[in-house]
Amino acid sequence: MTTTERTAVAGKFRELKERAEEHCRERWGGRPVIMVGAATCGRAAGALDVLRAFEDEIRKHNLDCPVLEVGCMGHCYAEPLVIISKPGYPPICYGYVNEVIAERLVREFIIGDNPCPEFVIAALEANDMLPSFDDFPRAQYEKKTILQNCGRIDPADIEHYIASGGYAAMAKTLEMAPEAVIDEVTNAGLRGRGGAGFPTGRKWRYCRDTPGRPKYLICNADEGDPGAFMDRSILESDPHSVIEGLIIAAYAIGTRHGYIYVRAEYPLAVERVETALKQAKKANLLGRNILGSDFTFDITLFRGSGAFVCGEETALIASIEGMAGLPRYRPPYPSSRGLHGKPTVVNNVKTLACVRHIMNDGAESFRSTGTADSPGTAVFALAGKIVNTGLVEVPMGTTLRNIIFDVGSGIPHGRKFKAVQIGGPSGGCLPESALDLPVDFDSLREAGAMMGSGGMVVLDEDDCMVEIARYFLEFTQHESCGKCTFCRLGTRQMLEVLTDFTLGQGTIEDLDNLEKLAEEVRDGSLCQLGRTAPNPILTTLRYFRDEYLEHIELGRCPALMCMHLIAYYILPDKCERSCDACIGTCTVEAITSNKKRIKVIDQEKCVKCNTCLTACPPQYNAIVKLSPPSEVPEQ
Amino acid sequence: MAGVEKARNAEEREHIEQETSRVLKGFGRKRQNLIPVLQKVQECLGYLPGEAMTMIADYLDIPDIDVYGVVTFYNQFRLNPPGKHSIRVCLGTACHMKGGYITLDAWKRRLDIGPGETTADREFDLDTVACVGCCTMAPVTVVDEKPEGKVEPTKVDGILAAFEREREAGGKETSDND
Description:
heterodimer; A: alpha/beta; 5-stranded mixed beta sheet; 24 helices; 18 strands; 40% helix; globular; B: 178 residues; disordered C terminus
């Protein structure tokens, strides 16, 4: 690149940035701004109704106060979340907001001067009025890098992203030699966040050095792991950070063609990416001669069609080519023979979101977080039986205990921790004794689990480990593409054995066969789907063998979860004569009152939907689950 | 090719042919356009009838069976017409552990159909989905594109009651107009 081109890029970017800052000042400067977290998780909690309530109230009072729809801040347990920034106050985050609270916030805080501390979760900056997120004990374990913009900027407004420092890394990159960019990423030690942890810089270099044109770059956003939602959240809340990462990667490997492969089950993410791509094109951050340089690059959005195996890179490539998503044997790896047989780099969403931070702050700064072998941060989606569900970002090497008990605040309702399922269907269940493991690519693999894409589902004593193994096998069996025998038939066999266990029909011999088969499927399958499918079985057998034995020998589910092995029963001496709560709520009219007005469940009719148990008032607590069902006394 | 449904009458066939050729006009005759074409046709028709699949195969110059293979490989494509309202029960890990299977049972019981089926009156279709990424609101059911959080059997009844009310109100309006 010539010097004139170089100054052209810097000059054009400066103009762009000034315009963006001006735009943000005009829209939001000197007045209160309301930001409603309306990513998919917020919407499920009613964020769109809250958004409308704010808009109606603002209109009613004829106020000058913009209401923005932003992404997810990660504190999903308190959805819907709202941030209000009013001049003279720190930006304040409110939780569990509904339409009534929205009205009150407008009346009392936007019009009046009462920030309504009763609804406050925390302020976003340190101040002398309200506690801030940094004052939370969990703050010492967290480090937000790739999530820093999520929920804080308008994802449908490129200027908001640019004004917050966006695309600066890209502008800087376009002034460097492509090899220098690869060196920087290699020195940073960035490893692929999709689960396998392959060094990103090395992948880029292979692709760059392999002869053959055109080359392709693909962002893998086919986040199929049930229980994981990090990529969805990033694409919905900060799509430009991923696009910026793609542009930098494309420049480094020397390609003009990029794809973002988004999962079909994420309609909002698709919409946000579409908008972001349009805006980037309009601003000449994509397309011909980006910012006046000689670099040309464009991105096509490809919607997946719902197949878990397409998260595997060779299957994903087959899918873009218009085929069924069948993986193929590697090597050759896509970096030498990928899309249409050409050198192709496939990177995960989070990997690409890291790139701009490396280019902005340098490799050294990136390495200063995390461990020597796994630098940087890790993003986890916390779900299941945990108080603070949501997205967390911690330095690599943080222990599972810190993540679950300090950041996630432990298990709700005073229940006991049993296991954490990490890495989705390819991962495993780790027990209490593994909680002091540092979370990085290598330690987890040793424990039998894997980082996977970062889904973490916490299980408590009410969750049955045999059932969870069966659940994952049902998933992998259904998603197995059928190409190789071990995976196609092996997963089916394993599922049948596990289903027998949950029905109380297994034998000890089955258990031995299951273990043997699991090892064979792991060793014999073609792609990672099959090779990792036995992990849930192998880890539960390793850490929770007793539970399997109880199912087999006693026909009893100790966690009282397996439907065929439990029965609901109303304790006659605890049942209150004057209360009919269970009768009213029973969805199949299986509960009747006897002569003494004590309620009785008709076991034939009962569908075990758990409604009566939640309806029974806590002061009586008369309904229990019994296992095996033969425990229920004759009535 | 098992499970493929075709138009029931000439009118339906004409509609299918019209919509499909309209969609095809927007795409080049390249194999790699197959999945986007199928997505678009399903968006217009709600499902992929046999006639449409044949037209797509002809247009892209590939065998019918290749189109059928791709359609049945991916979970998103459907061979039968959808109901007026779609019910998608999330069975991701978090939803499953928080009772998603119980919720699915409740839907099956109330609608009297299994996953992948449509009620006889074409009012509802029921399906499961691996994960919609709202794990924190588990158990989730996506009702007509809107994710509903914490759907337990009583909420299933509530959602159905709301549709029932809507239908009654709608029916009343039409009868008022008569």
